[in-house]
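Retro notes - structure team

What went well: the batch runner handled both jobs without manual restarts.
What didn't: labels got mixed up in the shared folder, which is why I'm recording both outputs here explicitly, each with its sequence directly above its tokens.

Job 1
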Amino acid sequence: MDKKFQIGEIARFFDMPASTFRYWEDKGILHPRKKIENQYREYAIEDLMTISDVIFYKNLGLELKEIRGMDAATPEQHGKLFSEKLVELEHQQELLTRRMEKLRYHMKALKTLEELKTQIYQESDIDTACIVSFDLIERDKLRQYIENPYLYSRVQHTQTLPQEQRGLTIPAEMSSSFPKSSILWQKKANRYVTFLLREEVTEGFPNNLHEHLSRIQKSYRTGAIISRFLLCAQENGKTYDFYKTFIEII
């Protein structure tokens, strides 16, 4: 079969811009013939197979410079290249999985915020067992915060409210790996009242903790106060840090 194709026909056939095939030609991937009288490109049936192979290899993640040498590569060289690409893709997959997990954390925080707006002063258990101190210059802990900001927690006590401490929540089984001096709080009770704490991002960082606390103390005796960060966002023209706050019932 000696049928010839113009570049426009090839572009429509593969549903790709003609500029892509010109670029592949510039890179030495395609070698279409050119008519003597007008220098128009002509693609043969064999070129369709070459283009199909290029698309196949590009879908595997290979670069044009790697594709250009595929025909001259030995089976061993093919195997080495494909193995390297597989490792590269596995690494990318790992990064994507972690990124998706971070997005799920953020979406969960948004859902929690909306629930707290309507389900105020609900009794519940707390969703952490231990909080250790956190300083921004502690590199490892800062990386943990970057992975999941909801780990960031503030610890206070009803009797010493101004003595606020900053920490990260950790699983209970990891508490033994930290010095006792760094443990700010460990779970001792199962009853807590939850609400949404708003702290305005402005001078002095005013929040509505006292307002909530005074309401809760009309019905309960209170102990520890744990505020877990949700997100920073605007509401009614003001920027707030939003926290899910747990007040211990004693």
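Job 2
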Amino acid sequence: MILTLVLLSIGALLFLVIAYNVMQQYKQKVASDRRATVARYKSIADEAEAVLLNVNLLPFSKSLVLILQHRILDAYRAIAQASPGHVQIKQRIQDAQAQIASVQENYRSPDDGSFRPPESDRQAIQMLQTIKKMRAVLRVEHNKGKIDPQGFAHEDRRLELMLLKVNIANLLQRAREAMNSNQFGSCRQLLAKGLAVLGNVSDKDAYLIAREEDLRQGLAELDHRLQSESQKELQNIKDKEADELDMLFQPKKKW
């Protein structure tokens, strides 16, 4: 009888230990999943905020700015749901809501002519990365049904043209540097490439039309430079031949 009680006690103790371990593992998994969820949504909010910081470099429409702001708000709300005790999350939600209200009331979509070319290679890379991230966000929000197909197509095309503008501006700068360094072959390749790309664009705006004309003028200037260099080189050869003839037929000195 005593042995039976001991065995039952041991069995009950083992059951309690196993149950405790299972509960601990479950709590750890829940905590781990919660941390992963918070980290994922925080990353979404941080990325959207990083894109917003560069809005001053690019003419983003009001719709795009609101998409970013709502994405931040949705991320904060998801964090609050996953981790109700998260510090300062309520204040961040309020701040995001205030930002959305401010954009809706005060933000005016810039026109396409307000595009400013990059001032350096570093800024060009920054602008390209920002546009690519914005296009990725736009696709995600469209897949969620938060933007209609027509609006998505319009905004995505505007972003695609922004990418082209940055690349063409950068190409023109490199072509000028190549011409100034007398790298005429590289200069011609760059200018011809830019014209070929723009020739396939049917919906060019005023900025791209002006850059297309710059590319044509660049090619004309390059041809003029090459013609001038060829004439100069030919004249140098003639001068050298004349000097050699003068040396050959000059009177010999008498000693």
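One thing worth noting from job 2: Helices lie at 2-53, 62-82, 89-106, 121-143, 149-180, 184-199, 206-249.
We'll revisit the folder naming next retro.
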